[in-house]
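ingest -> validate -> predict -> emit
validate: passed (alphabet ok, no gaps, 128 aa)
predict: started
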Amino acid sequence: MFTLLFFSSFLIGITQQPNPPLERYRWKQRVLLVFAPAETAKAFSEQKTIFRQHETGFRERELVVLDLLPGGKNTEALRRQFGVKPQEFTVILIGKDGGEKLRRPAPVAAKELFDLIDSMPMRQRERQ
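emit:
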C-alpha cells in the first residue's frame, strides 16, 4: 500500500512540475519555439528572414525566439514535450502563461503572430 501511495505521489509530482527550459520565461515573455531538422532547412531560413524583418514588433510584444536544432541544449526534451519529430519543421507560440497558443508546420508570417498576440487579453492590458 505504501509503495503504491508513494509511486502515485511521485507521478503526480512529475506531471505538475513546470518545464524548466521554459519556466524562466513564464509571466515575463512570450516564447516562439522554432523546431527544424537542420539549420540549412529552407523553412528555417525563411522563418529567420521573417523574424529579422520584424525585430521591433518582437521586442514590443516581449517575444523571444528559441531555435531548436539537432544537438541544441533542451532540443530533445522540448521535442518530446511538444510531440515534434526530429525531421519536422514546426513553429509553436507559447504565451506568457506557459500555454500553447499556436502551432504551424510551416513558416509563420509576422502579421499572423502579431495579430494573434495583440488579440490576447494580457497583451491588451500591456498596451493600456
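The longest strand covers residues 30-35.
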